[in-house]
Write a structure and sequence with these properties.
This protein is α/β, with parallel strands linked by helices. Helices cover 34% and strands 18% of the residues. The protein is built from eleven helices and 14 strands.
Length: 301
């Protein structure tokens, strides 16, 4: 069972090293993307930690601002790099640098062997009530970032200055018409993270190269990473093999609906009882005890 992990990271080099050290066994490969915004000191620290490992590859860097299409582009860059290695992988798993395994490597491999050929990605058809406005405005509206602020057009914006409001009304005139959805595709959304077969990953790589307009259509889409792969896979030859599960323990009780709760030691029992393979998200700078507890009371067994 050969597995490739695509890891999207932007800080916490020690936590990333901890994650990789726990996953690093025979026939495991890592494809790491470090956000282009990351300070070079941190980037060099991460790079130097792993540069001698022959099973670690670094992905071309993108400025992957949260909510932008660059997160999709970074992931696609990782997929292309995996294919270019010429290695055959049974599964490719997308993680963030703040994810952590909550089952042993042996368990993960056994689980994937027992489910060989299945594609794991959480999905739901859009529109869906769990996303504001049903979720379609994420892709129908123009989501443009300027000066660290995101403008959703034609959604109404409030300005304190009448002059600013007037200028804005002039600037958005070309964008007032809603954008068309990708023709011929039913639209799906869901969690960013997935676990896909090598065959599915190869198909995705071929598709995006043959259909650059499909990728381009997701420019100016809000949280495109929560729509792009779902729509592509659920309209692909692999759709009948999809299991509606991202294999992650995630607590969405956070007051911010766009970001899951940061897990700490108070969540340990829930994590231990979970049937999922991974959990997110963790912040060792705030609570490193939870990772030690997982190591000692779950992974060591």
């Amino acid at each position: 069972m050969r597995i490739a992990y695509v890891i999207l990271a932007h800080h916490y080099p020690e936590q990333l090293a901890h994650l990789i050290s726990k996953l690093n066994t025979d026939d495991i490969f890592f494809f790491i993307h470090i956000d282009k915004k990351t300070d070079m000191t941190i980037y060099n620290q991460i790079f130097n930690q792993f540069k001698e490992l022959t099973n670690v590859f670094f992905i071309k860097r993108y400025n992957s601002v949260w909510g932008t299409v660059n997160i999709v582009k970074a992931t696609l860059e990782g997929i292309n790099l995996i294919v270019e290695t010429g290695l055959e992988f049974d599964y490719i798993i997308l993680l963030s640098g703040q994810d952590y395994l909550i089952k042993s490597n042996a368990y993960i491999k056994t689980f994937l062997q027992a489910n060989q050929g299945k594609e794991f990605i959480e999905y739901f058809s859009l529109p869906d009530s769990r996303w504001g406005g049903g979720g379609l405005r994420r892709i129908e509206y123009w989501h443009i970032r300027w000066n660290n602020k995101c403008f959703s057009i034609p959604e109404k914006q409030e300005f304190k200055s009448p002059i600013a409001s007037f200028l804005y009304s002039l600037l958005i005139l070309p964008f007032l018409k809603k954008r068309k959805l990708p023709e011929g595709f039913a639209i799906y959304g869901g969690s960013q993270f997935w676990c896909l077969t090598g065959e599915c990953i190869k198909w995705i790589n071929i598709f995006v190269k043959k259909n650059p307009k499909f990728v381009k259509r997701f420019n100016y889409t809000f949280c495109a990473d929560e729509i792009f792969f779902h729509t592509l896979i659920l309209n692909s030859p692999f759709k009948d093999k999809v299991v509606n599960d991202n294999l992650r323990y995630i607590d969405w009780s956070n007051i911010n609906p766009y970001h899951p709760k940061t897990l700490d030691k108070n969540e340990f029992e829930k994590i231990r009882q979970s049937e999922k393979l991974f959990a997110r998200k963790f912040d060792a700078s705030k609570d490193s005890d939870i990772l030690d507890m997982i190591d000692q009371r779950i992974l060591s067994k």
